Amino acid sequence: MNLSELILNLQIPRIDDVYYPSDDSYLVIDYLDNPEFEKLFLNLSESKKEIKILDMGCGTGILGFCTIYKLISAGICKTIHLTYADVNQKAIEVTKFMINENFTHLVNLNHFKSDNVIIDYYKSDLFDTIPSQLFDIVLFNPPYLPQDEEITNPKPIDQALYGGPEGISVLSAFFRTLKTYVTADSHIFFITSTLGALHTLLPCLSKDYHITLLQNIHMFFEDFGLFHAKEKPKTTDKV
Ligand SMILES: C[S@@+](CC[C@H](N)C(=O)[O-])C[C@H]1O[C@@H](n2cnc3c(N)ncnc32)[C@H](O)[C@@H]1O
Q: How much is the pTM?
């Protein structure tokens, strides 16, 4: 089953305080269905025993779930270790529920082995509570809208939408800490909106990462972009 069919069959709770998957989430899922995504992981070295995935700002957990579904259905039989993180405790609860409700879709895959799937959950402000480790795949669909000044009493759902005055503060903070959690072989996927200050963000990220726009969609007043980032090899300090 491809992901566009799978998502129609997923049980995803809809509650007020947790971001329900929308066009931005589907932009990521659409790319996961693209053969280019599989190609990134088919040639992993034999010595690599585990693929580590981080779904930052997991919301309902749909991006991480679709990623492991895709990897298992592509026949990648290594251990898959998925880490979910969200600053919103309710998102973590919804994600656990979503995994329980939908796990059978993974079990039904030919290459599924129960010992090969490990899932962790962290209520975490970005990386604050995530143990130090190196991830192979990092996904982040962040809050990307410029803060609405008329909101004086923000609700939890506002934290899913607003990324500071220019819409890029959560993503910028994420990239500042990300360096210690990835290597030059890691693949980082993130969403942006043209309503945010991309002219500031992208040149800044380009100092440390190779950044590629994978696909984008136009929605009413903004374009969403799905970007891929790969860390530039760390250079040794010159004496
Ligand atoms: C646009 S929603 C995306 C949800 C889900 N990943 C999806 O694509 O459907 C952004 C998510 O980031 C979370 N978030 C916002 N700020 C965060 C932070 N500082 N640390 C961790 N998660 C954060 C929000 O709670 C929300 O669940």
A: 0.95
pLDDT digit string, tens, across residues 163-200: 888 999 999 999 999 999 999 999 999 999 999 999 99
Residues 179 and 7: their CA atoms lie apart, in Å, by 32
What's phi and psi for 90, nearest 5 deg? -65, -35
Domain residue extents for the chain: 3-11+51-231
pLDDT, tens digit (0-9, with 9 covering 90-100), for 93-113: 999 999 999 999 999 998 888
Ligand 1 pocket by C-beta < 6 Å: which residues?
A: 19, 21, 25, 57-59, 62-63, 85-88, 91, 124-126, 141-143, 159-160, 170
Q: DSSP letter at 47? A: T
CA of 196 to the centre of ligand 1 (A): 16
User: Residue length, the chain?
Assistant: 239
CA distance 70 to 123: 25
CATH architecture classification, 3-11+51-231 = 3-Layer(aba) Sandwich (3.40)
Cα 130–Cα 65–Cα 125 angle in degrees, nearest 5:
25
